[in-house]
Amino acid sequence: MGGIKMAENTSKKEEFRKFLERVKRGLDFIEEIWVEREIKHPPKSDESEGLLIKSEGLFCIAKTLSGKSASNVTELLRDDLQYSFERREFAFRFIAAKPGSGKTTIQSYLCQLIDAQSEYRKSAIIVKFRCGKLLSQAGVESFSVKFFIYALTQTFWEIMRKDNEVLSEDIKLIAEKSLKKIIGDEKAFSLSGKTDDYLGYCEQLINYLSEKKDNFQDRFFLNLHNFKENDSSATFVYLIDELDSLDSSPQYLQDFRVIMRELINEGKDKGLPIMVYIAGNSRFMNDFISPDKGLSRRVVPSIINLISFRKDECEKIKSKIEERIYDAYNGCQDFSTAWQEIKKIQLEATKHYNSLGEFCNSFAERIIEVHENYFDVYDKNFNQYENKARRIFEDNIKKQWSQFIGDNFTLQSDCQEGLSGHHGHTKWQKWKGKNGYSILIAQSNTNLLYKNESKHSLDCYAELYKGDDLMAKAYGEAKNYALIKEHINTFSQWLKDFDFKPLRTHPDLALIFSPSCTELQLGKLELKHIKFIKIEKIFSPPPPPPNTSKTINNSEVININLAELDELKAIFKGTKISSINTFNKLIKGRPYNSVEDLTRRMKFSDTCKTHLQKKFANGEISFDKLN
């Protein structure tokens, strides 16, 4: 494998490596490979007989808190959020599953759904902790005291931390007043200087609370009542994981049962704005709940039973990973060889994995090996995509800044350097508008300095001037494949480094270009004031490797421009293309130059396009012209 490594290609590989490592770890919600988990309503016989936790079976089992129907996990969680945030009801859940079956993922997914809704996010106080963390807390206090001190501390930290910029200022003000009432003005003022120091803040607040010798359970609930009375929108979300870590301490278990009863009684009976999600191992959950009949009766309707995996779920995850590999690298010179290596990867249930987590670990581990051995050669399609993004970037910033520069502007000059002395350009263009305003637009990548020492290489960049005064900046990034978490995180951090100011009179602008973006990603981008613009992928697939022709129905590579009806049906098997009229239209429209040409002229979906691109890369189809 030869070739010159380019900066963008290196960046792409590094970002994609991080994505694959996330899949391999499988410790959190991974939006890029999320597949819907079907759920069924618990049989009435199970409820009447007190059968609480079942980790085996064909489907996950749960029912909504509102009484509405839900067919999958997303519908269930969205109903929970509506139940709590909009109806202002107390929400309590036990999540039971074997290790690796998605307990923690459910909690993380709930957070993502909250983050994607601006109205939810600005009123949500999300506190996450593991039960095992409480076991390591210093002191000889009872488990109940440790729990409520820790919960209070984490609650105030989440509200007051300096980087929680989305949370409502009204909620922060209530918390500030509550804290002064609990520990006094002087100590509260001392804490206000530590809102960027997690350990310092929490340790100091724990010390202050410990000095009080209060009934911390009462203090915890009084605090929640105070928020309810002063801000009806505040909603507290407590995500507690690893309940089974308390298995070694029978007294702690009994204390925790009491805590759960108090949370349910106080929350449900007095209508406190709380969501409590507790996750643990299925077998342990049964042992925890069963001895307490009163607790059992109250939590039976709230349990989410997750099975370890379904084979179709694993196949969908595999397909999503393969699609992203294909989408990101199909322009690379060595792609066809790498793709063959990927298609050889076969995993068997019970032999290679026994849960969704184990499947993700095993499959990603094998994909990473291929990923590291290939895809080092520069992808020429990216430059074409980047140039297209710059043209659209220019049009967008002119429109968004039109209130200053107007709708009629002229190209005043081309220049070699920007007025701010940035580096990395071949050329700038200066556009002159009304009232002394002008826009300076970079025509190539921009190495933009920050903190006078480091630099980030932006795909698109522009500056708004009034006379010689810099008024605002615009930043853009382009990705010739579907967005992943790493893209958004990196661009968001860069904007922070650049002191991005999107809300002032002359707003800074941020745009990101990609062929696709998920609904959750779109919500996150909007919250960060980053505009997503869809640009179709530029795709020029490499020729298949020599001596690797594939067969379909015992035939050689099928030429789309010569294929018979039965051959076309075989090619499109697995898509929604099955109508004879559609095939006749396809045949009548021949010849076609490429997958892009075929899908554009036939108006096929992106899913169908990906299906055909894979077959082309595998050497299963061709577009040879008629003689």
From TrEMBL:
Entry-linked InterPro entries: P-loop_NTPase (IPR027417)
Organism superkingdom: Bacteria
Alphabetized Gene3D superfamilies for the sequence: P-loop containing nucleotide triphosphate hydrolases
Name used for this protein in its record: Uncharacterized protein
Organism encoding this protein: Woronichinia naegeliana WA131
